[in-house]
Structure formats: structure tokens, C-alpha cells
Amino acid sequence: MVNVTKKQLEALVTDLQKELEALRLAHSQVEQELEAAHGAARGHAEALAAAQAETAAAEQAAIEAQARVTAAEHAAAAAAAEAAAVEASRAALEQQLAQAATTGGAAAAGTGEHLPDIPRPAGSGWPIRESMEMNHADYAEIQRTVRSLVIRAQLDWTDDFRRQDADKLATLFRAARKLHPVLRRYVNNWATAAIAKQYMQNKRKHAYKQGYIKKKPNGMDEGNRRRHDEDDSMGGAASSAGGISA
Which residues pair with 184 in a beta bridge? Predict the structure, then answer.
């Protein structure tokens, strides 16, 4: 058995305490370093999440941009198709006028040229067909022609008949007379104007009801607007085009 003095034991205890203190310091330092590592890891995770969010936002923006480009391309294609349709309608109308010019004269001799003229009825609220003194079948055929000519002459059916372009109205009246010479009987084209205006007004009413277009302000008071609509529906509107004989 080794004899250890008190002084040696005290020295040994002191050494052990120093080593224990050193271990405590080392442990504390390791904990600090570990906490710093955890903080750095959290920062990296947050940065990664932010980068992923930015990437997702950029991808979504790219998708939306592509959708806008596609919509613009579709709109451009639709506009081109509409322009082509308008041009085709114009060409068809010109061809129809040319054909009517060659055949209209001969047809006129047997379809009303020698019949007496019929002036526009007075007042408003008169029925168009009866005022034209025409049977249902002939009137329906003229109606179809006039409606087609309204579109081909590019009249603006969304606006009041009295604000239509005079040259376009003259083209309409001229084409209608050549295709149906009997329309020459009606002084100043009142019958053609009444049929065209009734068609445009009915088309506007349907568009208003469906919400396709909004009513345009026209400066008239409500009473005048009601009277104007009544003229539209029964044909009295022909007075607005009476000065265009074309």
C-alpha cells in the first residue's frame, strides 16, 4: 500500500478540479458552436425556402405571361378573320350590285316600274307591309334582302338610324332597288328605310337585353326616345332617311 501525504492529495484534487473546469469550458464552447451551427442551418433553410418561393413566383409569372401572349395571338387572329369577313362581304355586295346592274333593268319592267308611286304614310305607328300594299311572301323576301344589305353595307346597328353614314345608306337603297325594282315605287326609299331601321332596332333591343352593348346617349328626353322607339318598331322611322334618295 502506497502512503500518500495530505499535501499530495490536495495537489491531486487541485489537478482534478482544473481538469474538470477545463472540461466544463470545452463543453460550453461545444454547445455554443453547436448553437451557432443550428442558427446557420436555420438561416440556410429560410434562404432556401425564400429562393423556392421566388422560383415558384417566377414560374407562375411566366405562365401568366404566356397566357397573355396566347390570348393576344387569338385576339389578333380573330381580328384578322373579322377583317377578312368584312372584306368578303364588301366584295360580295359589289358583285351583287354588278349583277343587279345587268339584270335589274329588264326585271324592273315587269315588277313595278309602271305602277304608281306610293308616298310615305303620314304620322307614326303604321304597319310597314300593309303600307307597302304587299303580300306576305314578297314582303318576307324583301325583308331578307334588306337585312342582308344592312350587314353588307356595314351600317352601325348599335347606333341610331338617323346617325348612319349617308353614303352607306345610299348604297343600301341603290342595291335594294336593283334587287327588287318594285321598291322604286316607294318615294324617297321610305319602305327600304323602314325595314332596315326596324331590323337594326330589334337587333339593338336584343343586344341590350343580353348585355352585349350599352345604350348610347343621344341627347333626347325620355318622351322623344319612346316616340322614336315606337317609330322604329312600326316603320315610321323612314322619315329620318327621306332625304337620301340615291
Answer: none
DSSP class of residue 133? T
Take residue 67 and report the three cell numbers written for it.
397566357
Q: Can you say how many angstroms the Cα of residue 34 is from the centroid of all Cα atoms in its chain?
A: 64
Angle, nearest 10°, between helix axes 6-110 and 166-179? 50
31-76 pLDDT, tens digit per residue, is 899 889 888 888 888 988 898 999 888 899 889 988 887 876 887 6
189 contacts 246 by C-beta, under 8 angstroms: yes
Nearest to 131 by CA among 199, 195, 175: 195
The amino acid sitting at 154 is Q
What is the full DSSP assignment across 172-240?
HHHHHHHH-GGGGGBGGGHHHHHHHHHHHHHHHHHHHHHTSS-PPP-S--HHHHHHHHHHHHHTGGGGG
User: Full-prediction pTM beyond 0.70?
Assistant: no
Secondary structure percentages of the chain, helix, strand, coil, to 5: 80, 0, 20
The single-letter code of the amino acid at 125 is: G
Positive or negative torsion for Cα 204, 209, 212, 218? positive
In 3D space, the residue among 168, 190, 57 whose CA is nearest the CA of residue 119 turns out to be 190
